[in-house]
Amino acid sequence: MGGREANVVLLDENGIRSDGRKVNETRKVTIKAGVLKNASGSAYIEFGGNKILAGVFGPRDVHPKHMSNPDTGILRVRYHMEPFSVGERKKPAPSRREIEISKVIKEALEPAVMLEKFPRTAVDVFLEVLQADGGTRCAALDAASVALADAGIPMRDLVCACASGKAADALILDVNNEEDQAGQADMPIGYMPNLGKITLLQLDGVLTADEYKKCIELGLEGCKQVYEIQKNALREKYFSSGDKD
Amino acid sequence: MRNFKDKKQYVIPGDVITTSPLRLRENVTLDGKRIIATSIGLTNIYDDSVRVIPLSAVYLPKIDDIVIGKIKSIFGNSWFADINSCYQGMLLGQDVFGRGSYPTTSEMKERLDNGDIIYAKIANSDRQREPLISIADQSLGKIDSGELVKISPTKIPRLIGKHGSMIQTIEASTNATITVGQNGLIVVSCDETNGLLKALAAIRMVDEQAHLVNLTDKVKKMLESDGV
Which helix (H) or strand (E) holds B64? Predict the structure, then answer.
């Protein structure tokens, strides 16, 4: 973002990044599906230092009633950061940034969910960031998609997300907090791997046309890696014990 | 192309099941020529059609389903019942008091009040309105006593078993009466405490292990053992 000066070495002479990763390597991702009893569907994701809890409710009655749509169900997403999720206490009220992220995550999930089967209802997705370490919108989107599948909401595909970007003049996969602060570009990508469609694409920073193309390709690679982890999380919950009938 | 006949696959949303031209049934969608699963579940491929049996789903009312509901409110000339779905079941006053009658709220309350449990049939369900339910049949009506339990509606066929084998096993060994609604609500009534607890434990077991083989045997074993 803006190439701010920092003391950290983002990329050393061996091509190793500040947290010891290679340029095309994601952070460690673990996902667990079905962690909350009272929600229809839920998921917990650890994406490097990010810790995010997702809960899905519904389909259920829409309140206020005027928001309901007689043709289809509606999707509502709330992305929220806990006051203790960042170094300095964050005010718990929704900020401009959180409202924006709620909106982009909602729009990234909408092509995947098939809410036309549930007219006059709403599906609510709550995303609580317990700990933030750069790339929370991608991690939150990953968790939301697993939680929606866990809730039994019909979906055309899972949505997986991973960021790519540019730091120290090199294209990198899965931008972490330092690289986001001191790097040159950050590009979160949401992707439906089976349908081959991009549902989220943002870019903060400056890239040449060539870099832009490469950055998308790199990001999609990361998405596919995350997709496997999402799949395994759902498999573990639903198919783990015993043989099938 | 691989032959998937008689072979069940585990799928999650987005998984491609097949590319052969089959009729689409529940929980599948078409993307170009590919048939894609839209739910977590097991595929079932028939001679001419394909479907996914979901392991997690929301109950959607279908006409002629037998459901268990809990009266939530009385509004105008109808009761509204929670039928474990995203829609409330609407039970018309006329259905209980006869055609052309307009009962007062207190008359309706006397017959069925908030919190009462009913065994009902889905009379009509469409996209426009709340589903209509009916208790106008001998076997239907208010349920006076029993323990209400909720399981995933996708597990109901498993709880009933082939030709009712599972439910008969549970009923026979616990002396409990189990009333099952297709919406995932179940009422268990039993005179003995131990029998009731055992029946409840068996139902919970079916809910948790519905995708495993030899479940009937496992349930039998649990029911035969002492204690819960």
Answer: none
Q: Is residue A224 part of a domain?
A: yes
What domain range is A225 assigned to?
Answer: 29-239
Contact B38 A238 (CB under 8 A): no
The complex's ipTM?
A: 0.86
pTM over 0.80, yes/no: yes
Look at residue A109 and tell me if it is in a domain: yes
Of the candidates B36, B42, B56, the beta carbon closest to that of A151 is on: B56
Which residues in chain B have their CB less than 8 angstroms from residue A194's CB?
A: 14-16, 31, 36
- Indicate the number of domains in chain A: 1
Of B188, B202, B64, the closest CA to residue B132 belongs to B64
- Residue indicated by tokens 């959607």: B60
Interface of A with B (CB under 8 A): 40-41, 58-61, 70, 112, 114, 117-121, 149-158, 192-195, 231, 234-235, 238-239, 241-245
Residue A98 lies in a domain: yes
Per-residue pLDDT of chain A (245 residues; tens, 9 = 90+): 444 555 678 888 888 999 999 999 999 999 999 999 999 999 999 999 999 999 999 899 999 999 999 999 999 999 999 999 999 999 999 999 999 999 999 999 999 999 999 999 999 999 999 999 999 999 999 999 999 999 999 999 999 999 999 999 999 999 999 999 999 999 999 999 999 999 999 999 999 999 999 999 999 999 999 999 999 999 999 887 644 44
Nearest chain A Cα distance for residue B128, angstroms = 7
Query: What is the SS3 assignment for A29-73?
Result: EEEEECCCCCCCEEEEEEECCEEEEEEEEEEEECCCHHHCCCCCC
Structural domain contains residue A16:
no
Tokens, residue B154: 């996708």
For residue A107, the surrounding DSSP H or E stretch is: helix A96-109
Exposure string over B29-52, b if 16+ CB within 10 A, otherwise e: beeeeebbbbbbbbbbbeeeebbb
The sheet with strand A29-33 has its strands ordered as A29-33, A41-47, A50-61, A121-131, A74-81
- Please tell me the distance from the alpha carbon of residue B25 to that of residue B44, in angstroms, as a whole number: 10
Domains of chain B listed by start with CATH number: 10-54 (2.40.50.100), 66-143 (2.40.50.140), 147-224 (3.30.1370.10)
> Coil, strand, or helix at residue B11?
strand
Strand pairing class (B88-92; B132-134): parallel
Specify the CATH number for the domain of residue A188: 3.30.230.70
Closest partner residue to B10 among A61, A157, A239, by Cβ?
Answer: A239
